[in-house]
Design brief:
11 strands, four-stranded antiparallel β-sheet, mainly beta, 124 residues
């Protein structure tokens, strides 16, 4: 069983930056594809970014491309989401997730483990 713990959320003004972290348990972090998703009130959970387990290739939703950067540190068993130029529409609970089987994954159902989420609120 893998445990994921997100941190780094908060309340910021539009245009500000935040860096989310997701620390994972276990010794096999480097074998997992990792991703970030978000869920705003009344909306479905949506894909934000993903990073492959091999070569660290990255994938982004169009809505965050150019503003957000996903990265991973396999030595620290941690995945990050650097969020710049934040907008009010980025307000949501952000979740990290781990996929045991694929090199990378973009869909919610493909992920096996989820964190509890961290709230990001962007005021205008």
């Amino acid at each position: 069983q893998v445990q994921l713990v997100e941190s780094g959320g908060g309340l910021v003004q539009a245009g500000a930056s935040l860096r989310l972290s997701c620390a994972t348990s276990g010794r096999t972090f480097s074998t997992y594809a990792m991703g970030w998703f978000r869920q705003a009130p009344g909306k479905e959970r949506e894909f934000v970014a993903a990073i492959s387990r091999s070569e660290g290739r990255t994938y982004y939703a169009d809505s965050v491309k150019g503003r957000f950067t996903i990265s991973r540190d396999n030595a620290k068993n941690t995945v990050y989401l650097q969020m710049n130029s934040l907008k009010p529409e980025d307000t949501a609970v952000y979740y990290c997730a781990a996929d045991r089987y694929r090199d990378y994954a973009l869909l919610t159902y493909q992920y096996d483990y989820w964190g509890q989420g961290t709230q990001v609120t962007v005021s205008s």
